[in-house]
Amino acid sequence: MRLPALPLLLLLLAIGSHAGCNKAKDKPAGGGSAGSGSAALAGSGSAALAGSGSAGSGSAAPAAADDPLNSKDILARTQVARESYVRHILVSWRERDPFYAAMGSHMDRRAAQRDQAAAGKLAQELLAQLRAKPDAIDELITKHSEDPNSLTGDPFRVQPGGGYPRPFIDLALRLKEQEAGIVATDYGYHVMLRVPQPVPDPLESADILKREQETPPIYWQHIVIGWDQRPANTDPRARARTKDAADTLAKDLLAKVRDKGDMVKLIKQHSEDPAAKDPARVFTSQGDADNAVERLACRLKIDEVGLVRSPLGWTIVKRVPPPPPPPPDKLESLAILKRKPETERAQVKHILVGWAELNAGDARAKARSRAQIEKLVPEILDRAKKGEPFESLMIAFSEDSPSAVKSGASYDVTPDASLVQPFIDLSLRLKVGELGVVKTEFGLHIIKRIE
Prior knowledge:
The structure is a single chain. It contains 17 helices and twelve strands. The protein is globular. By secondary structure, the protein is of the alpha+beta class. It has three domains: 39-195, Roll (Chitinase A, domain 3), CATH 3.10.50.40; 206-319, Chitinase A, domain 3; 334-449, Chitinase A, domain 3. The two termini are 19 Å apart. The protein has helices at residues 72-75, 97-102, 109-112, 116-132, 137-144, 166-172, 206-209, 236-239, 243-258, 263-270, 292-297, 334-337, 363-366, 370-385, 390-397, 402-407, 421-427, and strands at residues 84-91, 156-158, 180-185, 188-195, 218-225, 283-285, 305-310, 313-319, 346-353, 411-413, 435-440, 443-449. The strands form three sheets. Strands 2-1-4-3 form a four-stranded antiparallel β-sheet, with helices on both faces. Strands 6-5-8-7 form a four-stranded antiparallel β-sheet. The protein is 29% helix and 16% strand.
């Protein structure tokens, strides 16, 4: 249920996925993603692994949970770690391509040229090599892994409720340190090695990260500075920069922000986060998360600044005061939003539409004017109220992720669901069968409560 992130398979949380200082609030969307924070900062691990591991569109058969190559002896263990740091080699095959397409991503060209038998054979060979020589993990990832984020050298931090496919989590939490195993997910075979918890980079704000988290919600802004070994960062400046040069620039910018430098100006000049196109944008979290950026943000005092590594590179994070609430949009269902909640749990479906100034990246929205959206939303509402199937309207109009649109996905909404707050507020105030409209940072959501 997250906004599709950079299609590097798809960038995790996880950004994020953003799991949240409880849970970060994410746009309801299928697939992997980022939430109200940065797609590119969504996780300490891989976007390729965000979400449940199933597109939900019915366009690709799910990977078998009982795949014969799975490390069943390890998966059968009852001792489960509270957290685990792992590195992995992703090996996929051409029959998984519909799943990647449904997730809005592209399969590695090597995977597109092999069948499942060939992928299984390669995965078994890599597992044997890794078990014989765990120190070969860097070499094997560089040569074979089809997950770009595995190339950073950073391990993925995995917890029971993290934003990874369930089989991936199950294996990661049962491996012993320096032990290797294999598991299948919808992305392919993961040849995985559990590694020790990494030593923080000397430049990171380790003292702040050791603190207890602050009371959410947390608001922050950030500057991303990458280098040539951060494949998630496609900015040309990062591609041309060494780690040493990134260290120097990050330290310089950290000092400027601490010296009350103009954060918006510095973001505009330097930041390489593609999710922060608006330099004045403020990100928010409802609590701690798997990803390093939110972990730091949730421990900062207001106006305090810190530095942490993310999949994109160095991230300078400044916690800011809560921004003033935006004025209501005239298309929103203000009367419904003023009600008391009808329920603590609702099942809803929605249609997301945007326009040039506010959209989730859909080409239709980018080409649409505000005047056009003011005609489109009432038209969709009218057609829905006259009995046209809501699922048909989703397919025709919604700019949510392809997998969510095609599957007619519904969302389970509770007060603490991992969804943007306005979406929750309207959903819980709707009566069963009622329609409403609410605005979020992704556009306008036409929501129907189905139960």
